[in-house]
């Protein structure tokens, strides 16, 4: 757990102090209602008890805002008289009165490996195929849709960062794939391979997600792609205006990526192989050209050596030696 985010424990009580000015410290989510101006901060606390199912508690803080901040209504002139053909009924028969209230949406983000959700206690090797999921809670799926408008990665000290999604479009699908949806925008998924910064084993994802009524408006991303992703060199200058946009959510998630000392170790008496893992499947951070004193960074991939071929060759040599001895 990150320093400063641990609870203060007492008999039968755990007190969390979550900063609202820096939500990224402890992974708090911030949601802004674009109509009312209301801001909601929430954090999921998981309670694990031996022999029982994991319990999830949603802690939230609501800050009210000015009502109807984005109202576009103009001035109206007073009508001097009613239209001559207006006929008002003497009796109104109201047969049905309908009142409904939309639920408050809550977002969650997860990183999966082969269908298994990862957390900060699990390590993955650089180059491991992973999938990021952003999804709505079950109560909100029938009402809203989502769109990932911005995503960046940074190290644990925030000294290095790289933007990977801008204005709803992936900057480089070879590093981080385009967000796709198969259920009308209730769940977004993007595939990528684990990468790390040279001086940190933790990668922090910081994203902004739009929540719209029913479904968010698609983003034209170029190269015959229109919707939730793009291909390289087609970043739109800005997101299109979406009249259905209601909420804007800022969320974070962590990923622990580090090298193991030994890639594989077989049982005693069998063959084992070693190679320098620091040159395999890593995404080193290289400083590119500096423009006006502002350095930019690029992520690059390098192919992994063929381990299966090395292992097969070693087995062949052992088999030949054994046959010659016999």
Automatic annotation (TrEMBL):
GO biological process: anatomical structure morphogenesis
PROSITE patterns noted in UniProt: ZP_2
Protein name, UniProt field: ZP domain-containing protein
Alphabetical list of InterPro entries matching this protein: Celegans_DevNeuronal_Protein, ZP_dom
Residue ranges of every copy of the ZP domain listed in the record: 1-228
Organism from which the protein derives: Ixodes scapularis
